[in-house]
Design brief:
single chain; 356 residues; alpha+beta; Nuclear Transport Factor 2, Chain: A; 2 domains; 6-stranded mixed β-sheet; globular
Length: 356
Amino acid sequence: MKKSISSFVLISSMAMVPATQAEAGRPHLYQQRLEVGRALLEVRSANVAEVLPYYTDDIEYHDPIVDIHGIQEMTAFLYRLLGASPDLVTIVEDETLVGDIYSATWVMNGQFFGVPYKAKGISIFKFEPGSARVYYQRDYYSEGDIMATIPGLDQAILGFRTYYRCAVDPAFDCPFDGFPSGSAIGFQAPDNPRALLGRDNRLRSPEQLRRAQLAVGRQLVALDAESWPSVLPYLASSYEYHDPIVDIYGPASMAEFLSRLFAGSSDLYTTIEDETLVDGVYMATWTMAGMFNGAPFSAPGMSIVKFVDGTLQAYYSRDYYTEGDIMTGVPELADAVQGFRVYYRCAVDPTFDCPF
């Protein structure tokens, strides 16, 4: 149950996201923006009307399937979405607020027309200058998490995820023949075991540390076939990585994962767009482009990187994107993705001319 903005002062002492020096001069606005971001992410079917005033009239919203422009479309979209998922519950996890940009990771549980699902995601909100009203929102999640619960689509997403893990996941017992091992594609663990322990850098000033963490965060997110080995010294010994399909634990496993990934996608590149960094938590939006199965693709996404306190050692990172953007380039899978997207847009998108 969401609280109103006016009631936020009652819990402001519990806020877990510290203000930067710039926000410290406007604590009331900073706290309002935190509460607005949480309210919009945690909206339930019963309180749609309460959160609509937090959007500007020209609100722009995007997710992996839907694009919304204007408050009338946004109003219709929210009522349709939450009408199809009346028991939807979203729990905010990590969050940052820097200047006019709020970002947060979350876990969503619910049912879509009676079919239960669970999805992890991340969102970015942009506020009007000097205001607590949002003019831009983008949500990132994997539509595969929902497709996997729908008979007829579940096999398509399972097949793609299996194929992908066979190609890149060093911990996966691939059921297919013909996929190379890490050694077969040239991966070798470093001779010096300390090479993967990360860098401490505790003697840096706060500003030096912030700039350095920004640089490492960008480096981790915007990896390519030539640069990926250079990031390995910044991975803590407890490092873990997640994306919609793969879970990697330890810097050595991450090195093999990256070696496999770029051996099969040497032209893959990522362009960073918006980014924030608060207390060692880096978040960035990006667009990834390359080839998969001989077909070009372009996929938007967002990432979070967490650093060991006071250091350049990354101990956690997660990439959020939807497999559907890549699957549409595979002829055997494209129809399943397009079918799901039509079904979803028919249910929630007020701008879509549903063929059914």
